[in-house]
Structures are given as structure tokens and as C-alpha cells.
Amino acid sequence: MLGTGASVNNYKGSYWEKIRDNYSVGINYWALHDFVPNYLMLEFIGNHDSLLDNVLMRRCSEFSKCNIVIKGNYLNSNNYKFINSRLNKIPDSLKKNMYLSKDFPIPGDNYTDFKKSVYLLHKLGFFGKKKKIDYLAQSRGTLIAAIIMGIKLGFKKIVLCGVDLNNCSNFYMSDYDYYKNKGYPLPSLEEFKNRENPSLRHWTDRDNHNIIKVSDSVKVMEEFFRKNFDVKIYVGSKESNLLPKVPQFKWN
Question: What's the CA gap between 112 and 217, in Å, rounded?
Fold first, then answer.
């Protein structure tokens, strides 16, 4: 799973060779990265973003063989008001491999309740490997939906790369000149700093009395799939805030 954390800028060539030799899922703004994954999962509906539209247009030939999964955002009709105008901006060469996922939120605003919900979904047979993925589920962001998609695709090891969470920095703003010179309409560094405050913990992992932190939901997933499906979930870097809740992958 390829997240946008700045730690991926420190990955060695051997890491990328291993990633290239396996299936990969790029999440949201991974579309800016030079490495083209097998899948892209995008928070597309209800998210009007000229940066992502620009990148998909510029790189349509590179992504022409990439499966693009558009999160359904719970199929809420309010999110679909501008779907046609958004789709009109997507090159036809990408639409042939583009899929809209049906998804729903996993109940549970704390570790205990979320864990109960995951086990209930298991009893209902939700996580079983299938020839056709019918539904996905998520909790506070795209990462959980991507993990569940990996489970349903039959992955036995899932490595969370660029899932740092201890700050709001990302690989393209941390290597600003490189990506700006590609012609991507990035915000200025000052604008990004004022909007995101890169030094703060990632917004999906901040304390919120009504929503479980993504690090806790990933920990539930790591424990559950390891015990019930013999699926191992790792982090790709020691820079991830998921350590030691989730073990670090040994690249060599």
C-alpha cells in the first residue's frame, strides 16, 4: 500500500524493486509519484481537486493499464452532484479501467467497539476472498478501504509504505522543486504550511472523541487478519507512527 508520507523519499532502490515485483496499490495523491502501481484508489467523489485532475490528465498514457478504484463515499447522493463534470475531465483511456466501489463505514468510535464490528463482519463472511469484490468498508480515510481490498484480492502480506501519520508532510511537498518542475500545480510551500501545518500529526490520527484514530483501526486489522487469515500487515519504514503497534517489514 503506497501512501503519500515523505518517508518514501528515503526508500532504497532495492525496496522499489521488491515493490515492482509485487502488486501495489497507490492511495490518492500517489498519482504524482513516478512509480506507477497496479491499482490507484482515489478519494474522488465530493473532492474537487484541480491538482489530481491535472496529474491524471498529464499522465493518462502512464496510467492507461492501471486499475483505478474510485471510492464510493458510502454512495451518498450528496457526493454525486458534480460527478458528470468531474468525469468529463478524465481521459477516456483511463475510464476503461476505472471502477466505482460500493462501500460503507465500519461502526466504532473507539478501539473496543471497532474491534467488535470487525469480528461481526467476519462472522457475516465479509472478508472472504471472492472472484468479484462486491463491497468495501472503511474507517477514517482511504487506508482501511485499501487494506480490505488487498485482503479480498488474496494478499498474504501487506506493507504500508508512506503511512507515516506522525506529521502532515508528504513526498511531493518534501521534494518540492522536483515535482513543481514537472508542471504539477502545487501550492506554494508557504500556503501548504499555513493550510496543513506539516509538523502536526496526520489529521486521520488525531484524537477525536467521535472517531477512532487510524493507527488504532490499523492495529485492530493487523491483529485480526494475522490471527484469522494468516495475513501479515507491516509498515515499510521506521518513520511510521504505527510502530510498534504494527511490525516493520524486513526488506532484505
Answer: 10
